[in-house]
Specification:
By secondary structure, this protein is of the alpha/beta class. The chain is built from 6 helices and 9 strands, in the order H-E-H-E-H-E-E-H-E-E-H-E-H-E-E. Strand 6 (about 145), helix 5 and strand 7 form a beta-alpha-beta unit. It starts with 9 loop residues before the first helix and ends with a strand.
């Protein structure tokens, strides 16, 4: 049987290396990670290749994404990536207890979701992360943000306008608003990393 060709994201290809460099700094040597909104699967396979002591659980809301993830995993011949699963952050708890998937994770990773989904997904991401993170676990979010004390680049202003034109429920989120949602469920901002193309990688720690 021929393995279907996976989807390809030029942005994921560009940003996977700088994101990995930060993950290698902030993550412990080994653990179990849950990826939210895995998309094409380029990130999870890249991270799994370079963080081999970590087991990765990719997820997405779209069945097409799951097929692309499976294709990348097959091509990479990885044994530390679990089969991708459907997951909508608004439907909690996120993962049914099947005995094969951890119910708590040492890290949860979510890239480029908050600005292309309704604001309700932010609270849901924080609530679900607080539920599924092991004590001391890390939530890592990546993407473009607005910040009160940091000038917004013209590129991000234009991007925000284009998103809101596509869907009024979309748009770049204020980091401070995201931080408020996180604080309500016991997650606090541990580190902020400025990334290429006016993105941020934010590391949140679970207090429980």
């Amino acid at each position: 049987m021929t393995t279907p060709s996976p989807a390809f994201s030029p942005a994921a290809e560009r940003n996977r290396r700088p994101i990995l460099e930060v993950l290698q700094r902030v993550l412990p040597a080994q653990g179990h990670a849950l990826e939210i909104a895995s998309g094409t699967g380029q990130h999870v396979t890249w991270f799994a290749q370079h963080l081999p002591q970590w087991t990765w659980q990719p997820t997405d809301t779209h069945a097409d994404a799951l097929r692309s993830i499976a294709a990348y995993v097959a091509l990479s011949r990885l044994d530390n990536v679990r089969p991708a699963r459907l997951l909508d952050v608004l439907n909690q708890p996120w993962l049914e207890d099947t005995g094969t998937v951890p119910q708590q994770f040492d890290a949860i990773y979510c890239a480029n979701m908050l600005h292309i989904s309704p604001w309700a997904t932010c609270a849901a991401l924080m609530q679900g992360s607080a539920l599924h993170l092991a004590p001391g676990g890390l939530l890592i979010t990546y993407g473009p943000y607005l910040e009160d004390d940091v000038p917004t680049s013209q590129g991000n202003r234009d991007f925000d306008l284009s998103l809101r034109a596509q869907n009024p429920a979309w748009g770049l989120r204020r980091r401070e608003d995201v931080e408020s949602q996180a604080a309500q469920v016991g997650l606090h901002l541990l580190q902020r990393f400025a990334m290429p193309a006016n993105n941020l990688l934010l590391v949140w720690r679970c207090r429980h």
